[in-house]
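#structure-requests
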Amino acid sequence: MTIELAIILLTYLLLLVMSYQIIFLINTKEDKRGCIIINTSYKHAYIILLFGILIVYTLIKLPHIHLASQTISYLILVSKLISVITLAVSIFLLSKKL
C-alpha cells in the first residue's frame, strides 16, 4: 500500500467520523449532553494521538534503531488512524452510555 492510498483512506475515515458527529449533534435533544460527549471524545483522541507521536519520536531518537523516512511516515499515519478510530468509538460508546 502506498502512502497516498493510506492518506486517502485516513481522510475518508475522518470524514465518516465527522459526519457521524454532526448527525449525532443534530439528533441530540440536550445540547449540553452532546457537547460533553464530543469534548470527552476529543480528549481521548488527542491523548492517544500524543502518545502515538511520542512513541514515534522515541523510536526516531533511539540510536540503535534506524528507520527510513517512509517508515516514519507510516508510523505517524498509523498513530493518526488509531486516534480517529478512538474518536469514533468514544463518540459511539458515550452516546449509548450517557
